[in-house]
Every structure is written in structure tokens, then in C-alpha cells.
# Entry
Amino acid sequence: MSKAVTRTLTTSPGLLASLDPLLREWLPRQRWFAGKGRPVTGFSLVAATELLPPGGKLGLYHLLVRAHQALTPVPGAPEQPADCYQLLIGDREALPPRLAPALIGHVAKGPLAGRTVYDALYDTRPTELLLEALRTGARIGGLRFERAAGQDIRSGLVPRLVTSEQSNSSVVYGDTFILKLLRRVVPGVNPDLELPLALAREGCDRVPAPTAWIGAELAGDSYVLGVLQPFVQGAADGWELALRELAKGEDFAAAARALGRATAEVHTALARTLPTVTLGHTQVRQLVDGMVGRLEAAAQAVPALRPYAPGLRSAFAALADLAAEGCTWTAQRIHGDLHLGQCLRSPAGQWWLIDFEGEPSKPLAERRMPQPPVRDVAGMLRSFDYAAHSADPPIPGWADTCRAAYCSGYAQVSGVDPRTDPVLLRAYETDKAIYEVVYEARHRPDWLPVPLSAISRLAADTGTPPSSTPLSPPSPRRPSP
Ligand SMILES: Nc1ncnc2c1ncn2[C@@H]1O[C@H](COP(=O)(O)OP(=O)(O)O)[C@@H](O)[C@H]1O
Ligand SMILES: O=P(O)(O)O[C@H]1O[C@H](CO)[C@@H](O[C@H]2O[C@H](CO)[C@@H](O)[C@H](O)[C@H]2O)[C@H](O)[C@H]1O
# Structure
């Protein structure tokens, strides 16, 4: 295997043409394929790296491939910028039964004619090879396997592919490490590596510290392609845990408070180590314009949203009004896509935050911009609401109790209770609920009533916190008189 990881790169120009008809059929069926609903019109090769040579028992290729797609399912329509996907393709004479779920197809012509190609992340030898490359700090063509200083990786850990629904693909090694291979990749700094590395430097142990990562200098661009981190053994995610407690009729307040503290620990460390900025009138105006734009687009797409649009606009207008009065807010790097499914709790009761990629559909530059930390808080508050709606029979007040506990835990560590800035919180909760309405209408129409019930509450809300809430001074900085 160590011979394989030092092999020099050879690109295979004929390879993609021979895979083209198979990938057209296979790629859109993958959970992580981001362009669902638009036919793939062709592929172009960004980079090909041969990890094991063709013609042997097993050939292995690392590919970055652009999938060109029509803008709408109308033939001849103009094309959007094509997404680039990371693929690890194996070729064998035939697949053993255990690899049946990995099948891409049988190649008819070209350099691999007669061979069977498959998603090699399902296979032991290719995934062992990746870990070995990370362990030894290999360079293979433009691929760079890097290890964090002082981190050791034991050899011989047994790999298994994580089969749950994911936006990317992950392999667990001997319950010791988990390697996330990013599927849709863009050049530049990936926050899923950048932020956990920054947090590790800062000594924040609410996030698994990256042990190693796969980077690449390919076709003139640099990429982050994968991150290896310690596997939190026996962990359950916050969504599973919340549903479990709900099914037992138990409240989740202590766990929500601890999660609030964990979120604040992460925010505080990020604010210490990465730049923060002040958002004044102009920046808040832009932020509000973005929120209003998303509302208008969502109301176009989902008619059920339209009756609430005036009330929702008022949530955004209230924020613009505060900014016009001279209020300012601090923005910093945040998680960017926080919900219960992004939090793991270890059997010892420790919370961990994972998946710092931000909303993958947003451009990288936007995902890396400083934002008010309340945005993460709003995401988590929405999640408690979602969990409560899954309970049958519903437990009155369950979500409110969690939401309050989460905010008070957050305040314990950060010194700022998010509820003291109700206008900002309402604006972000509204923005998130609108996003969820579109998401559910597209992906899970049965779930649409969940965000819609929040929409009806938020549209009617005046933004005033309940009088029983103990308040610390409001968090927007008000102009001096
Ligand atoms: N460090 C970890 N320890 C244990 N399980 C993890 C760890 N990181 C991720 N996971 C598991 O893998 C799943 C997917 O990870 P995530 O980073 O959210 O990937 P994606 O971006 O593909 O959604 C998580 O929901 C969790 O179950
Ligand atoms: O996990 P992803 O980054 O792919 O996020 C998408 O899918 C989520 C659902 O899996 C969706 O989250 C919404 O539903 C969750 C319950 O299933 C809930 O906990 C979240 O609060 C709610 O937003 C997310 O919006 C979407 O981007």
C-alpha cells in the first residue's frame, strides 16, 4: 500500500468519456448530489489522479468532475455554473456481492472497457489507502495529505462507510477517527476545516479537532477535499436525543441549557481568535435586503407563505429601523447552519458541535463572512420547535422550555442573553423559518406545517420578549444620546 501512495500522477483524458453515460445515471441518484431536478447535460474533468493503476485486480482514481446541468428541465435552456464533485472511482473485473450497493456500472469503451466501476468509498482497500496516505503525509499528484502537528494516526484501523443520509460522505476508522470526504467542492478555504482548526488552536474542546486533512492544488486552484477528526464514540445527535426524550414524555431543558453553554463556548472562542466587525446602518440594510429578497422568492415559490408576508416583512423592517436609529451589532465567524442534527452528545454528557461548512448552497465567500452570533441561536431555537412538532401527543410548552433553557445556558457563558435583542432574534428566526418553508415544500411536503406554524407566530409577533424573561441590558449597541 505504501508503494501506491507514492505513485506519481497520471491523468487519464479518455477516462471521463468512458464513464460519462454511467455517471449521468448514477450521480443524480446520490443523496449528496446538489443539483436534483435538473438533468445532467455533460461532464468536464477538473483533475484526475491515479491512486492504483488500471488493469490490476483493482484500479483506483480520484476525480474532480464538473457536472453540467440545464437550468430548468427544459431542453436547450441556458446553463448555471457547473458544480464540481469529488469522486473516488474503483474498477474491478466484477464486484463481489458486498460491493453491490457501490455499483456505478459496466464500462463499454475507452481505457476501462469491460471493467466494472464503483464508488470506492464502500471498499476496504481504497479507504485504507486514504488513511495510510494521511498517516504518512503523502503527496500524490496534486493531492496533499496533511497531518496536524503532534497528531499520530495508528495504522491498521478498520474502515466502514457511514450509510446515513448525508450532504457529504464519511468513513469511520475503527471507531477512532471519522473522515469526511466533501462531495461538492469549491476552491478556497473550507470553513469545515478552517473553524475547527481555529477552535483547536484556541483550546475549545466543544469541537473535534482536525487530526489530518486532504488538500489539493489542482488545475491552478487549491481545495480542501476531506477532514479526518476523532470519532466521538457512542454519541447520539441532538435530534435523536430530543425525540427520544419527547417519546418518554420527558423535558430536555438540562440538555438544552448545556447545549446553549456549548454554543456560547464556541462563539466566544471564535470571536477571540478570528476577526469581528461592527455592523452599522449600511451593512444591516444589506442584511435586511437579503432577508426580504429571500422572503419574496419564497412567497413566489410557496403560495402558503403569501398571507403572512406583510407580518414577516415587519420583522425585517423593525431591524432596519433600529439600524437607521444608529444601533450597531457585532458580527463574527459562526457555525452558520446550526440545528440539533449538528450536535453530538457523548455518553458522558458532553456536547460537541460538528459540520462547520455553513449552508452548502451559499457561496463560500458568503459562508465565511462574519455574522451576528444570534443567527446560530435562531437556528437552534427553530430546531426545538421542529422536535416538539414531532411528538405525538404534543407536550405543551416543551419547545418553549427548551428554547428558554438554551438561551439561559448561552447567557451563562457568553454574558449575553439572545432574548435581550428580540428584534434581531425575530429577524433571524423569521429568515430561517422562511428557508425551512422552501426546504420542506421541495423535499418533505408533509413537514411543511412545522415551519408554517412558526411563520404564523412570527408574522403576528411584535418582537417584544415575554415580561417574565429576566433581561440583561440589550445587546445591540445603541447610539449615545
Ligand atoms: N466526530 C464525530 N464523531 C462521531 N460521529 C460523527 C462525527 N462527525 C460526524 N459524525 C456523524 O456523521 C454524520 C455526518 O457528519 P456531518 O459533518 O454532519 O456531515 P455532512 O456534512 O455530510 O452532513 C453526523 O450526523 C454524525 O452522525
Ligand atoms: O442537515 P442539512 O445541512 O442537510 O440541512 C437540511 O436538512 C435538514 C433536515 O435534515 C433541515 O433541518 C430542518 O429539519 C430538522 C429536523 O429534521 C430540524 O432539526 C431543523 O431545525 C430544520 O431546519 C435543514 O433546514 C436543511 O438545510
Notes: The chain has two domains: 8-230, 236-459. The mean pLDDT is 91. The two ends are 70 Å apart (CA to CA). Residues 8-230 form one domain.
